[in-house]
User: What shape does this take?
Amino acid sequence: MENIPNCPKCQCEYVYFDGSILVCPECSFEFQAEDVAEKVYKDANGNVLVDGDTVVVIQTLKIKGASSDIKKGTKVKNIRLVEPDDGVHDISCKIPGFGSMMLKTSVVKKSS
Assistant: This one.
């Protein structure tokens, strides 16, 4: 079988075919090739986002424990799209003045 996908759980590239299933040697996750579908991430306006894009926050975000909010219009460079652990936040990024943070795709728009 050619073009074996990376492990959907840990992104290991050393997945191997074992009979009728694919197996990850690092995390022992077993899956079918049909189960792996490339997720498409879209911003609030429906534009497709990819790793490395620059986005703009479209609403003021209150941050628990922070002395200030992330203001509407804040530009966030070089985003990384991730499979959300909590099922909600799918953008990993660094915001100037706040540091590393997870955002939802629904609160950003792609910058031109």
Observations:
- The chain has a mean pLDDT of 88.
- The CA atoms of residues 15 and 28 lie 10 Å apart.
- The chain is about 0% helix and 30% strand.
- The chain has two domains: 1-38, 41-110.
